[in-house]
Design brief:
Arc Repressor Mutant, subunit A, 3 domains, Pnp Oxidase, Chain A
Length: 531
């Protein structure tokens, strides 16, 4: 499949799946407009920026299929399996188009990139579609997708709290007292995004898997300031290093694939050394949670099927359900031989949870199967909330029970799942994603030509905004989005730069809930072990 990111966008536009918003739009409205749209959106004039924003390209299952050149969703899994079984190594190109504009050193300025906010409680603008490549002296190259919260014009965090190969690379570098160099490619075809998102064994080249899915090599370029490759056809590439500070910096919160707000994470800082970009670059903002879900699900199908095959179970079909956010719940049909039902469960559970009377909180619609499933996926711990009671009286019409003589009451197992929020769990863990300005920013209005007014802009206004921010945060902590709304008279770029200055001068911090506060105040968060 010889199609790059731009060609895919062109195809979506020709087929009516991508809409251009040509009038000026406040970047603070982007996420909620994307969430309201069933089409991919390209914002050609985000106020305060010289670069378009594209988002929502994999908003539906149909567009996920389209991106992979598949006629069915199951065909995506087949392509992934082909990539795993028959990987094609990547190849390097001499003059990648992403090197048309190169910025290094003190000229690096992330605030020039139109990185939007997502949900109300986010800790700051997040780079959500970065394909990250790193090298370990022993294990070689690893590729994955991680998010980066912008803190200063050349400083971000990287979310690697979950055990994975990237965290291992960073940990090994930290223990040796050295930075871990990384390249961050932004604006790539979903084929490479899926390849990077596949959790391959350490030492396996994920871009080789992407090449096998494509049927041709993925093209790479070489960085200017670090000894690493990047995806040659990217719109933007950040050359960076994870600083050997350890997991000590507050980051987040962020709306997760669970459709819930994640908590405040502690992560390392990342210093950006160079920005490479096309002259007419387009910034791709991966929208949570659905763009993540539709590209992640096929990797789960493949992993479950592989586990069942290893167990000697013949699979008829698998359904990785949406209620389980394409990560936790699976319905599996097998061509059964004696005893294989239990073997299939054990094999599948080695990949993900299969999570039977269910009790839910009153915020769950019990008539909505997806909501019930979502409650089970996000509120249950098996050892705590699942009760299995053997030897209970059962209905004779249950076909899964042994045939019993007439008049004999069969017994079987009953399962109860408590899918309520348990006592002692912080409420913020269950704050649902709620997009800012949803009461006033409506996609229908923008499609009819609505424009947003530009806020105050310019270097002089940055100092004014900085003083206003200090005044606000001295009174009480505020979420980044709420602060940007309160100071709405300033352009978002001005607010971001002012906050960047405060971070540079080490005046800015966050509370445990992820609100911004002044460092050293009674509100600020303390690292684990220092409370």
């Amino acid at each position: 499949m010889d199609e790059n990111f731009r060609a895919f966008l062109d195809r979506l536009e020709r087929e009516g799946d991508l809409v251009n918003i040509d009038q000026p739009v406040d970047i603070r409205h982007v996420a909620t407009l994307v969430d309201q749209s069933d089409k991919a959106l390209r914002f050609n004039q985000p106020i305060g920026y010289d670069m378009p924003i594209v988002s929502g390209i994999i908003r539906t299952q149909q567009r996920a299929m389209k991106s992979m050149g598949a006629s069915t969703y199951a065909e995506i899994e087949q392509k992934l399996q082909r990539g795993i079984d028959q990987p094609i190594p990547p190849r390097y190109v001499e003059r990648p188009p992403v090197k048309e504009v190169i910025t290094t050193g003190s000229e690096v300025d992330l605030f020039r990139l139109p990185i939007p906010m997502s949900s109300i409680y986010d800790g700051g603008p997040m780079i959500t579609a970065g394909i990250v490549m790193a090298r370990d002296p022993e294990y070689g190259i690893n590729t994955g997708i991680y998010r980066f919260m912008v803190k200063e014009k050349a400083l971000t965090g990287i979310d690697i709290v979950t055990p994975n190969n990237m965290r291992l690379f960073a940990q090994r570098a930290y223990e040796q007292g050295r930075p871990c160099e990384i390249s961050i490619s932004i604006g790539n075809h979903p084929m490479e995004i899926m390849g990077a998102g596949y959790r391959a064994p350490i030492g396996v080249d994920e871009m080789g898997i992407a090449g096998g899915m494509r049927g041709m090599p993925v093209e790479l370029g070489h960085c200017e300031t670090i000894d690493l490759p990047f995806l040659a056809d990217s719109e933007i590439v950040l050359e960076a290093e994870i600083l050997p500070t350890g997991w000590t910096q507050p980051e987040g919160r962020f709306g997760e694939f669970t459709a819930l707000m994640g908590g405040l994470h502690w992560n390392p800082n990342v210093r950006i050394k160079a920005i490479l970009q096309r002259r007419d670059a387009q910034y791709y903002a991966l929208h949570m949670p659905w763009e993540n879900t539709w590209l992640a699900a096929p990797t789960r199908y493949q992993a479950i099927r592989r586990a069942l095959r290893t167990a000697g179970v013949q699979v008829k079909d698998i359904n990785v359900t949406l209620g389980g956010r394409a990560f936790w719940h699976a319905v599996i049909s097998i061509k059964k031989q004696a005893g294989e039902g239990k073997n299939a469960l054990l094999a599948a559970l080695s990949v993900m949870d299969l999570k039977h009377v269910v009790v839910v909180d009153d915020d769950i619609d019990v008539f909505n199967g997806e909501q019930v499933e979502w409650a089970i996926a996000t509120r249950v711990q098996g050892d705590r909330d699942v009760m299995i009671i053997p030897g209970a009286r059962a209905k004779p019409l249950d076909p899964s029970l042994p045939v019993m003589p007439p008049g004999v009451v069969p017994t079987g197992a009953k399962v109860g799942i408590d899918a309520t929020i348990s006592e002692g769990i912080p409420h913020e863990r269950y704050e649902r994603i709620s997009y800012a300005y949803a009461d006033r920013a409506k996609i229908a209005d923008y499609l009819q030509g609505k424009s947003d007014a530009a806020g105050l802009a310019g270097d002089a206004q940055v100092a004014e905004a900085e003083a206003a921010i200090v005044q606000q945060l001295t009174q009480a902590p505020m979420y980044y989005q709420k602060l940007a709304e309160t100071l709405g008279r300033f352009g978002f770029n001005v607010i971001a730069r002012a906050l960047g200055r405060l971070h540079e001068t080490q005046q800015l911090w966050q509370t445990d809930e992820g609100r911004l506060c002044m460092r050293g105040s009674k509100f600020d968060a303390k690292p684990p072990g220092k409370r």
